Amino acid sequence: MSLTASELSFLRLLERTKKLAREDLSANVWKVNAAVLYLENLFSRLQDEKSMHNADMLMQYGRELNQMKLLVEAESCKSSEDKLSQLDLIPRHFPDAGIDIQSKDTSIVPHHPIETASEVRVRNRAVYRADLRKQLLGEEKKRREEMSDDLMKHEEKQENLANELLSLTRSLKQNMTVAGNVLKDDNKRLSSMNAQVDANTARLGAEGTRLAHHAYKCGFDCALIFVALFIFWSFICMVIVMKIFPKRVIA
């Protein structure tokens, strides 16, 4: 069966697009995307010419086109996980349909084997898994470096804290030593003051005894003086009375 010009253009562009995807999809993604857009226009034209094409072949073309669209969408994702998830949307198997590319004048063009969806899917999955593995290894290495830095910072903080605690302990020990010396001096002063208080108490007792003795002696002396004065004044009064009232002589 001869191919129309639209079908021939579609197949040739599809093969070139697959070749770009096989070589380096990440570098040629914009070319593949542009080719997919043009392939969609050609496929729409083929669908308008249904009477001139085999329905099974049109279905095969649609599947191949959908495969390329999914590949472009997967490559457009940022993370490797999203790429793998998008890649899983590609069917694992397409029904085999032999596609012979012929020109309008039925001259046979050299046949290029059409790559199956599973082969494209497996190759790109391997690439994305390798990228994901590199990304995970890089993140693991970065995480280890961050953990190492955090561990070093934590150890440095612990060392600084230990030094501060050691300094505080030394300062506390020194303060305790000074306080002990001060307490010893205070105890010595208190002991000497207690001795002085005891001595002063003994002196006060002796002075009190002496004062009591002097007070007793002074009271006794005052009593003697009072008795002497009483006797003296009694004698004077008696003399005065005798002078005033002389004794009468009885004849």
TrEMBL record:
One of its GO terms (biological process) is protein transport. The chain crosses the membrane at residues 223-245. GO terms for molecular function: SNAP receptor activity. InterPro entries: Vesicle_transport_protein_Use1. It is a single-pass type IV membrane protein. One of its GO terms (cellular component) is SNARE complex. CDD domains: SNARE_USE1 (cd15860). Keywords: Coiled coil, Endoplasmic reticulum, ER-Golgi transport, Membrane, Protein transport, Transmembrane, Transmembrane helix, Transport. It is found in: Endoplasmic reticulum membrane. Residues 137-171 form a coiled coil. Its main location: endoplasmic reticulum. Belongs to the USE1 family. This is Vesicle transport protein USE1. It comes from Ancylostoma ceylanicum.
